[in-house]
Specification:
The complex is a heterodimer. By secondary structure, chain A is an alpha/beta fold. Chain A has a domain at 49-151: 2-Layer Sandwich (Nucleotidyltransferase, domain 5), CATH 3.30.420. Chain A is 27% helix and 20% strand. Chain A contains four helices and eight strands; from the N terminus they run H-E-E-E-H-E-E-H-E-H-E-E. Chain A has helices at 19-33, 75-78, 96-106, 127-139, and strands at residues 49-50, 54-55, 62-68, 83-86, 89-91, 116-121, 144-148, 150-151. Chain A has a five-stranded mixed β-sheet, with helices on one face. A two-stranded parallel sheet of chain A has the order 1-8. The longest helix of chain A is centred in the first third of the chain and has 15 residues, at 19-33. Chain B is an alpha/beta fold. Chain B contains six helices and eight strands, in the order H-E-E-E-E-H-E-H-E-E-H-H-H-E. Chain B has a five-stranded mixed β-sheet with strand order 4-3-2-7-8, covered by helices on one side. Chain B has a two-stranded antiparallel sheet with strand order 5-6. In chain B, helix 2 (82-94) runs parallel beside helix 4 and helix 4 (141-167) crosses helix 6. Chain B starts with 15 loop residues before the first helix and ends in an 8-residue tail after the last strand. The chains are: A alpha/beta, B alpha/beta. At the A-B interface, helix 1, strand 2, strand 6, helix 4 and strand 7 of A face helix 1, strand 1 and helix 4 of B. Strand 7 of chain A pairs antiparallel with strand 1 of chain B.
Chain lengths: 158, 207
Amino acid sequence: MQIRKKGKKEVPPVSTASLPDIVFMLLFFFMVTTVMRETSLKVTHVIPKAKEVAKLERKSLVAYIHIGPPLKPLQSIYGTEPRIQLDDAFALPSDIPTFVESVKSQTNEAEVPLLTYSLKVDVKTKMGIVVDVKQELRKANALKINYSTSRIIDKTAQ
Amino acid sequence: MARSKREIQEINAGSMADIAFLLLIFFLVTTTMDVDTGLMRVLPPPILEDVPPPPPVKMRNVFVVLANSQDFLLVENDYMQVEDLKDAAKEFIIGKPGNPGDERFPEFKASQDPLIIKYFGPNYPISKQIVSLQNDRGTSYQLYIAIQDQLAAAYSEVRNEVAMNKFGKKYDELKDSKNAVDNDKAKAIRALIPQRISEAEPKEIGG
């Protein structure tokens, strides 16, 4: 008993015409969500963890100050003590007012009060250098700061 | 003259997918998905020379937290572990409204804030609490963040409890609510329990 017809019926090939569309969709998603890294890090930091963290909104209004020991290849020149990195270069606390001014000048005037200075500091750093940075920020009237921390999920709280 | 009716050849779109893939991979590699989180703080404005110093604060209103260079913690003249700081701070922030004579807890006063009067009545006692945090230059950043976190947790728990008792909703829910009335309530709670963490000018405490 043969139900099927003799003629060998080929499975129609899957149309790949929509493939570009799918890829474009993904492409647009990543294009929109991507944030270009502007600086290359010269210091290493392990960010501390905390529970009471808040999200940093509007990344364009955030200026980063990195503090931590220099990267391994740079340690022969700069030593292992924690250092400050502003933009792309190592800096001293006394460079912060200039940095703040340059950040402010690059921002829309109406949005200057919304500028946040995010301190990305290694956990092993001593407070001395952080205190110096904070004092300089105060002097430069850059008062909104954010201690960058990652969130720990507290299971006992729920 | 016979015009040759030649059709314009279609451009082959087969390679479009490849081009799109190339771009896609580029953005896949460069994208960073991490959301930045952290503890928001506002620094005190710089001290101007011709401004008179602020009036002194009574010691009983101040919750003193000291951290030395050995990462030991002294809270209200007692040794303490960081993990216990939250509960101690909470106790102090709530205070004893029923027993104003207790010298260990801060004083209370009524407020003229219209929002507080609206939701809590005119004679609601408001604590004059201030948390003073002082650290040495040798204190580790890890401990400093842990202290800040514990203090922030203490404040948010007190706020949540007050909001729960008064409005039946947590403070966080009120604050994040889209409802203007809820936001007003959150504002009233903020006025009631302001987060006052004063950081003294750093000193070489040593130790």
